[in-house]
Design brief:
Blueprint (H helix, E strand, L loop, with lengths): L2 H35 L6 H12 L3 H24 L7 H39 L2 H7 L4 H39 L4 H11 L2 H8 L2 H17 L4 H33 L1
Helix pairs in contact: 1-6, 2-6, 3-4, 3-6, 4-6, 4-7, 4-8, 4-9, 4-10, 6-7, 6-9, 9-10
């Protein structure tokens, strides 16, 4: 083995070791966060602040994303189904697509991009300016003060925003159905009502707490382990967006299989 091959092999080993170390660190942080989340005192003030900052402030981007997603689905499926004389099924396709997949996944991706990156940047800045060390010096747990409020806020707010986003996405399909296809609002509503069942809502919305958990834990972990000043914070933020997106897509597949099996 030449020197170049040895260096490349060592680099791959280091990368794998770093990845495994990160996975272990995320698992440990998740266990600590779950333990502190049920331990007194409960940080209600911090949680309420994060509910507003992470949830309410993300409402507009989630709604705009799903509005135009629903409109695009209606346009694409409408012209495709027109060739088979099946335009009347546009409402069913829009409703099922938005509720089962696109609503939960796209809302989670928007959260990962906005909220996850913001959490990593905030905590990472505290880390590189030694504010996290100051918390430990004051006998306060960074997990209790920084991670748990954000975790609780995300787990609460992401399902709620997903419900609103799905409703807006279906409304976007209604706009296209009325303006481009000549369907009435009552006909569209009836088609949506006939196509959706409680099990469909469970299968779609049941994924969102898992997505929220991944976003919160990964973003907090990257923030708490950021090093190297502003450059390190930027690198941690970028890693958060990439890895949370990967976790969302991978977990979406397995959760879909699980809910279908159940």
């Amino acid at each position: 083995m030449t020197g170049g091959e040895s260096a490349a092999y060592a680099a791959r080993v280091d990368s794998i070791a770093a990845l495994l170390s990160s996975i272990g660190g995320v698992a440990i942080l998740a266990a600590q966060a779950l333990r502190y989340s049920v331990r007194r005192p409960f940080e209600f003030r911090l949680i309420l602040n994060e509910l507003y900052q992470l949830g309410v402030m993300s409402l507009s981007i989630a709604l705009v994303t799903l509005l135009f997603t629903g409109m695009v689905i209606a346009v694409q499926t409408g012209y495709t189904l027109a060739a088979y004389g099946a335009k009347i099924y546009v409402a069913r396709l829009v409703a099922l697509s938005v509720v089962l997949e696109l609503g939960p996944v796209l809302t989670a991706i928007m959260f990962a991009a906005r909220v996850g990156a913001g959490i990593t940047a905030d905590i990472g800045s505290m880390r590189v300016t030694e504010q996290v060390d100051a918390l430990r010096a004051l006998a306060a747990s960074p997990v209790k003060k920084l991670v748990v409020p954000r975790l609780v806020a995300l787990v609460v707010m992401l399902p709620m925003l997903t419900v609103l986003a799905c409703a807006i996405g279906i409304t976007g399909g209604l706009i296209i159905a009325m303006t481009d296809m000549g369907q009435s609002a009552e006909f569209y509503r009836q088609q949506v009502q006939d196509s959706l069942y409680v099990s469909d809502l469970f299968r779609g919305l049941g994924k969102t707490p898992v997505f929220a958990f991944f976003i919160a834990i990964i973003s907090c972990y990257n923030g708490l382990n950021a090093t190297g000043g502003a450059e390190g914070v930027g690198r941690a933020t970028r890693n958060t967006v990439v890895f949370t997106a990967i976790c969302i897509f991978v977990s979406d597949f397995f959760l879909t299989k699980l809910f279908l099996w159940l």
